[in-house]
Design a protein that fits this description.
429 residues, alpha/beta, Rossmann fold, five-stranded mixed sheet, 15 helices, binds 6-O-phosphono-beta-D-fructofuranose
């Protein structure tokens, strides 16, 4: 049974692409990934390696939080929140009332004073837990948000505040780990050999996802299936490797932007997570596709014109799910004053699907190369599968470009500048 299908619609500029030219390089990369131990490759087998005890611990914590809080504040930025936020958006229903459940709020991913002020004010009548997540333990946004929310927790809960703070950080080192040990906060480990943007299937993602009411066992089951399926060395049988090769080939032929497109708004944070994954993994040494995204059909009415007829620097990757569990039908209207009765035998999903097909055709005819990734169902199993698929494809993609998928040296440049400016005595205007 295939869980994920990859297909393409390429115009004449790409007709002569031969996958098998990449067989040898892929095979070398495949073995390199299997064998390296000094790199941050712990995520490769993480879905298989996570123990039942670790999953139980997360379930127990999640139950405790749900019993004692109205809000879980997840403090983190980049890889320390995007994965969990992506899964929450994709699988937890929109517009549901929060009175009977807990709200999972992802905070500490900006430096806005008004955002922080309003956040604290919004907590006055609500009970909360804090889950601070940082692999390094020193990220500015996360650290200052934690300082504010730690103080506020003490104001609200006194001695008991420490029971409401959970720290997720590197298993071996870091400032946050030291703080947690000194203060007696409970800790969840991020394995040392897993970097931030590959950490979603560790407690980084699993605790917030579980509190959001999503079945983490199913997420892990989907990811485990992907570990097995996508460990196939033969390029023709491995969809992650094929996706990596397609991207590389398009990049080599001059395309500079990959536009990830979906027609379900709940996937918009999967786009955000994907952007960080590919952007930080590939964008170095003056190389790399620029990862961008669109939410259709909304963005057809803003960026659609550019994609169709603008500078031909991009290709599009459509992400879709064959079966969606919910739908809405168009009511029949006798008057037909809005002239929509021709659609009344169709549902929203029908119309959405047809508009996706129409968009693919139009963009293809406009000269945009198209990759299509389709999964069976929008559920926890397939989301787990998809996220692992992207991580595996991303690592292969970066190696094809001869860059290290697991570092982010460029990040230091702006961090240092900000730190230097903040250390200056004068206030920068
Ligand atoms: O988990 P940390 O160490 O706080 O890092 C958060 C994010 O910041 C980055 O270092 C980039 O600034 C990402 O690589 C990472 O996901």
């Amino acid at each position: 049974m295939t869980h994920l299908n990859l297909s393409t619609k390429f115009n004449e500029r790409l007709f002569d692409m031969d996958f098998m030219n990449f067989g040898h390089s892929i095979s070398l990369i495949h073995h390199h990934l299997e064998e390296v131990e000094d790199e941050l490759t712990g995520w490769l087998k993480q879905p298989l390696n996570i123990t039942a005890e670790e999953v139980d611990e997360i379930h127990n914590l999640s139950d405790e939080i749900k019993e004692n809080a109205d809000v879980l504040l997840v403090i983190g930025i980049g890889g320390s929140y995007l994965g969990a936020k992506a899964v929450q958006e994709a699988l937890a229903p929109n517009f549901t009332k929060k009175e009977n459940g807990i709200e999972v709020l992802f905070v500490g991913h900006n430096l806005s004073g008004s955002y922080m002020k309003r956040l604290v004010e919004s907590l006055h009548n609500r009970d909360f837990y804090v889950n601070v997540i940082s692999k390094s333990g020193t990220t500015l946004e996360t650290s200052i948000a934690f300082r504010v929310l730690r103080h506020y927790s003490i104001e609200r809960y006194g001695q008991n505040a420490k029971n409401r703070i959970i720290v997720t950080t590197d298993s071996e080192k870091g400032l946050l780990k030291e703080i947690a040990l000194a203060q007696g906060y409970r800790m969840l480990d991020i394995p040392s050999n897993i970097g931030g943007r590959y950490s979603l299937l560790t407690p980084v993602g699993l605790l917030p996802i579980s509190v959001a009411g999503i079945n983490i066992t199913e997420i892990l089951r989907g990811a485990c299936q992907a570990v097995i399926d996508l460990n196939e060395e033969d390029l023709e049988k491995n969809e992650a490797y094929r996706y990596a090769v397609l991207r590389y080939e398009l990049y080599s032929r001059g395309y500079q932007v990959e536009l990830l497109a979906s027609f379900e708004p709940c996937l918009s944070y999967i786009h955000e997570w994907w952007k960080q994954l590919f952007g930080e993994s590939e964008g170095k040494e003056k190389k790399g596709l620029f990862p961008a995204s669109v939410n259709y059909s909304t963005d057809l009415h803003s960026l659609g014109q550019y994609v169709q007829e603008g500078n031909p620097l991009l290709f599009e990757t459509f992400l879709s799910f064959k079966h969606l569990s919910e739908d809405c039908h168009l009511p029949f209207n006798e008057l037909d004053d809005d002239q929509l009765n021709y659609l009344s035998h169709r549902s929203f999903n029908d119309i959405n699907h047809i508009s996706e097909q129409g968009t693919v055709l139009a963009h293809f005819e406009g000269g945009v190369p198209i990759i299509q990734i389709e999964l069976e169902r929008l559920d926890a199993f397939h989301i787990g599968y998809l996220l692992y698929f992207f991580m595996k494809a991303c690592a292969i993609s970066a190696y094809l470009q001869d860059v290290n998928p697991f570092d982010q040296p460029g990040v230091e440049a702006y961090k240092t500048k900000i730190r230097d400016l903040l250390n200056e005595k004068t206030i920068v205007s």
